[in-house]
Amino acid sequence: MRIVFVLAGGAIAPTGGFRIIAGYANELCRRGHDVTLIAPKLVGAKPKTLRGKVRQAFFRSRFVTERNGPFLEEAEISVRVVEGKRVLSAEDFPDADIVIATWWETAEWINNLSDHYAKVHFVQGYEAFPYLPVDRVRAVYELPFRKIAVSQWLRSKLINEHASTGIEVIENAIDFEVFSTPEKKKQARPAVGFLYSVAAMKNSALAIEVCGRLKERFEDLRVLSFGSHKPRGPGKTPSWLEFSENPSPQKIREIYNACDVWLFTSDEEGFGLPILEAMAAGTPVVATRAGAAPQLVHEGNGVLVDADAATITNQTEKILNLGADDWGKMSEECLKTAQRRNWKDATDDFERVLKDTLIQTQAKLTKN
Fold first, then answer.
1. How far apart are CA 150 and CA 159, in angstroms?
2. Are 206 and 312 in contact (CB under 8 A)?
C-alpha cells in the first residue's frame, strides 16, 4: 500500500505521539509498504488565546526536518515538508492509497481530499484544548472516517461525546530492546523521574511538587526529567532537577534506566507512553488514572493514585524504601508488562485496519 501519514506543522520528536507515528512508519516500511510523512512548514491553526499563541511561538522553530532525528530509522521513508504553508491542500499530496490524519486539523485536510483516498484518523489524544477552536476540533471526531484510538478510555470518550463509530483500539507499542537494560538493579543513590511538558493536562507542576517533598525525605535523591523544551519562568526549574531537552533515544533510555520510580501525573491522557517506556527499563511507575494507566499499572509493577501530592509522595517513598529483592520483583513485573506491548503485534493490527479500510473504499468506488 502507498501510505501517507499527515502531520501538523511543528510535529516533532521526542514527543510520545511522534515516536509512535515514527514507529508505525518504520514497521510498515519494513513490510514493503511505500510510506510518506507530510507536513506543512508553518505551525497550523491560529490560536484563540494568549496561552495558545505562546505555545505556538515555542514550536515555530521545531519543524519537521528531513529525517526528524533518529526516530525514522528506514531510509526509504519519504518526508515532505511543504514550504510556506500552514494548511495542506490536494495538490500537496502524493499519489497514495490511504491517508492517515494524526491531529485534529489534519483530519480537516484529508476530509477535503478526493474519495479515491482511503481515510483513517489515528487518534492519540482528545484534542479539544481550550486554546484551540474547540467547535472545529469536536467536529472532526464526527467525520465518517475509520478511527484508531490508542486506549479504551479514548474510544469511550469518542463514543459517549460524539457517537463515533468504526473505532478500533490499538494500544501503543514500544521497542523493548531500546529501553531495557540487562540485570536492572535498584540505584545505590535513590532516583525518580518524570516527563516534563508545558501542556496543562500533563500536570508537570504536580510532579515537581512531589519531587520537592521527596527531597525533604531523601536528601541525596536524584530527580531526572526530559521533554521537548525545558521548564521556563520563576520557580519552574529547581536547582536539583537534572533536565534533558530534546534528548536522543539513547539518552531517554539512560534516564529511564537511572530511575527507581517513574512518576506519571497527567490529569488527562490519550495513552501515556512514558509508563510503558519506563516499565521496559524495569522502572516501577506511580501513576494517576489517566489514559491507559488503569490497563498498564497494577499491584506488583507500580501504584495507581489520585492526583494528590501527599498521596503520590507517600506511595513513591514506599517503593524507594523497598529492599533490593522486593524492588527487583517489581522491576521484573514491569518488564513482563512492557514485553506484551510489542511492535509486531501492534503493527499487525494497524496494518489490518488500513487494509480493511482500503478494501471498503475501493468497494464503494466500484459500486458508484
1. 14
2. yes
The Cα 77–Cα 22 span in angstroms is: 10
Average pLDDT over residues 14-42: 90
DSSP string, 328-367: HHHHHHHHHHHHTSBHHHHHHHHHHHHHHHHHHHHHHHHH
Asked if residue 48 lies in contact with residue 132, where contact means CB atoms within 8 angstroms, the answer is: yes
- Grid cell in block for residue 354: 488500513
Cβ atoms within 10 Å of 241's Cβ, excluding its own: 18
The rounded Cα 3 to chain-centroid distance in angstroms is 21
- Report yes or no: 299 and 337 within 8 Å, Cβ to Cβ: no
Q: pTM for this one? A: 0.82
Residue-wise pLDDT for 62-113, tens only, equals 444 444 445 787 788 988 888 888 899 999 999 999 999 999 999 999 999 9
| CB distance 229 to 193 below 8 Å | no
User: Which amino acid is residue 296, in one-letter code?
Assistant: L
Write out the H or E segment, with its range, that includes residue 238.
none
The CA-atom distances, in angstroms, between 147 and each of 103, 110, 328 are 12, 13, 39
Q: In the structure grid, which three cell numbers stand for residue 311, read together?
A: 498521596
Q: In what order do the strands lie in the sheet with 222-227?
A: 241-245, 222-227, 191-195, 261-264, 285-288, 302-305
* Alpha-carbon distances, residue 16 vs 112, 173, 262, 297 (angstroms): 28, 11, 16, 18
